[in-house]
């Protein structure tokens, strides 16, 4: 199979490299000349474990190539994936589909043979219909089928998620679309990954419903964590206690500072907009968005309280360990760390920080934060140490050294990676989430 991947960002690059690894011939296309030049030189535009090696092997094997020319890239392709960004539109939260529609038009104008066009970008219900209309309006004489195939890749685990998916969702309206997609995913099908064929609109909605449900699960356990603190219960045990019920499931029940990242915040907002447009309110998701937004600053206030309240906190120093929205990524989008740092600085607390991969992206977002070369440099002279992201590097801090370097043995752990008894034994005043 020949596959063209339009958009060589996170989703396009990971998907393209994985398809090539399955033996397909893949061309990744991107308008950004600098990005394509870097890819030719083997430099990845994002940090994702295993991606560089995967790209290198498949480029060497002649199965993966890069180009800025859409016309060249899609020539002879059986399947053309659209994997460009769909950011939140300024002002109203709608997904901005400008890039998707631009690509659709260009694909239609440059089609040189029959092809299945696949939207992999997360797009609101009905986008496939519009993509089809745009392509047909270009007057192409070739047979096309427009298919929806959402991605469910987690940053930091994207290659594993692609190669061993819980399921593959394909929304197609005709046999041509279904047959080509079956071929595209045949290697995974042989691995017994279930493929769910649905209508195109259903498939588009599945993506939003999945992310909204996961965001709801996290927000639910975060509220339970607050309640645990009030009633003197332990949220980790609550998670275990409810997660062992198969109907609930144990995953995505870790209480923390609120969800962030490139998907959940954007996709929940876009779902709310769709629900509003169709006059079918999704009140649960509305509440999730509000609760999660306010939680991020609340975590900053928790640290201010730990410092003795607003008056006592002024002029003190906090060390933030971890800035990215989760570990194993350099992605800062909607990271709770931003609100935590901002709330602290608003209260007159100086902030120093360290993150293993995210500092370059964090710098422009948090210009007043002092970025340090290692965790201990951030901790030196700090009145409170705050674990914001659960990078492995923070799971086994040298606690003796932390105590020596810090101004006070006060640690706020927003990811519950330490054991309260161990911390007490090590002489720390230790605050975590939902372990009252
Ligand atoms: C998510 C979805 O998991 C993926 O299927 C989708 O395609 C894209 O969005 P990602 O944004 O990479 O992936 O991160 P994920 O691992 O899902 O975490 C999202 C946020 O939720 C992070 O901020 C994380 O820290 C938080 N989270 C996750 C929790 O606070 N508790 C949990 O139990 C799980």
Task: Outline the structure in words.
- The chain has 436 residues and is α/β, with parallel strands linked by helices.
- It has helices at 10-21, 33-40, 51-60, 70-74, 98-110, 127-137, 158-163, 175-184, 186-190, 200-231, 235-243, 264-277, 283-306, 310-313, 336-346, 359-365, 375-379, 399-405, 420-425; strands spanning 2-6, 25-29, 64-67, 79-82, 115-119, 144-148, 168-171, 195-198, 317-321, 350-354, 370-371, 384-387, 410-413, 429-431.
- It has a 6-stranded parallel sheet, with helices on both faces. A 6-stranded parallel sheet has the order 11-10-9-12-13-14.
- Helix 15 (336-346) links the parallel strand 9 and strand 10.
- The longest helix has 32 residues, at 200-231.
- The radius of gyration is 24 Å and the shape is elongated.
- Uridine-5'-diphosphate-xylopyranose binds next to helix 10.
Could you provide a short overview of the structure?
The protein has 436 residues and is of the alpha/beta class. The chain is built from 19 helices and 14 strands. The protein has a 6-stranded parallel β-sheet, sandwiched between helices.
Number of domains: 2
Report the sheet with the most strands, covering strand number, pairing sense and barrel closure. 6 strands, parallel
The span between the termini is: 56 Å
Structural class: alpha/beta
- Percent in strands: 5-15%
How many helices? The count is 19
Q: Which CATH top level class of the largest domain fits?
A: Alpha Beta
Task: Please give the order of strands in the largest beta sheet.
Answer: 3-2-1-4-5-6
Fourth-level CATH superfamily of the largest domain? NAD(P)-binding Rossmann-like Domain
Task: Please count the beta strands (DSSP E, at least 2 residues each).
Answer: 14
What level of helicity do the residues show?
Answer: 40-55%
Q: Taking all residues together, what is the mean pLDDT?
A: 96
Shape: elongated
Please give the CATH architecture of the largest domain: 3-Layer(aba) Sandwich
């Amino acid at each position: 199979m020949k596959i063209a991947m339009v958009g060589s960002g996170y989703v396009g690059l990971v998907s393209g490299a994985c398809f090539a690894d399955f033996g397909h011939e893949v061309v990744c296309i991107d308008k950004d000349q600098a990005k394509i030049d870097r890819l030719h030189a083997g430099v990845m535009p994002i940090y994702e474990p295993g991606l560089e090696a995967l790209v290198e092997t498949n480029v060497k094997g002649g199965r993966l190539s890069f180009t800025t020319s859409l016309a060249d890239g899609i020539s002879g392709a059986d399947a053309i994936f659209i994997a460009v960004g769909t950011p939140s539109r300024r002002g109203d939260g709608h997904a901005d589909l400008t890039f998707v529609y631009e690509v659709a038009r260009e694909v239609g104008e440059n089609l040189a043979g029959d092809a299945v066009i696949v939207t992999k970008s997360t797009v609101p219900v009905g986008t496939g219909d519009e993509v089809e209309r745009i392509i047909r309006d270009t007057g192409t004489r070739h047979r096309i089928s427009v298919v929806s195939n959402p991605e469910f890749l987690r940053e930091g685990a994207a290659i594993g998620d692609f190669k061993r998916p819980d399921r593959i969702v394909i929304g197609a309206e005709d046999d041509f679309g279904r047959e080509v997609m079956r071929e595209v995913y045949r290697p995974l099908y042989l691995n017994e990954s279930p493929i769910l064929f649905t209508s195109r609109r259903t498939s588009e909605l599945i993506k939003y419903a999945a992310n909204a449900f996961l965001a709801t699960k996290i927000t639910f356990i975060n509220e339970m964590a607050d309640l645990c603190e009030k009633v003197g219960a332990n949220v980790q045990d609550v998670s275990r206690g409810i997660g062992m019920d198969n109907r609930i499931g144990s995953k995505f029940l870790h209480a923390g500072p609120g969800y962030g990242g490139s998907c959940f915040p954007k996709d929940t907002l876009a779902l709310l907009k769709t629900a509003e447009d169709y006059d079918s309110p999704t009140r649960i998701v509305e509440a999730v968005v509000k609760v999660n937004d306010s939680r991020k600053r609340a975590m900053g206030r928790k640290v201010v309280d730990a410092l003795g309240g607003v008056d006592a906190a002024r002029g003190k120093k906090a060390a933030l360990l971890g800035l990215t929205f989760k570990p194993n990524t350099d992605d800062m989008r909607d990271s709770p760390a931003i609100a935590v740092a901002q709330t602290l600085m608003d209260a007159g607390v100086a902030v120093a920080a360290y993150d293993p991969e995210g500092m370059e992206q964090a710098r422009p977002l948090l210009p007043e934060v002092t970025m340090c070369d290692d965790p201990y440099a951030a901790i030196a002279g700090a009145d409170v140490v705050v674990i914001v992201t659960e990078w492995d590097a923070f799971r086994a801090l040298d606690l003796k050294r932390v105590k020596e370097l810090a101004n006070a043995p006060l640690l706020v752990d927003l990811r519950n990676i330490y054991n309260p008894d161990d911390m007490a034994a090590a002489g720390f005043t230790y605050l975590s989430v939902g372990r009252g």
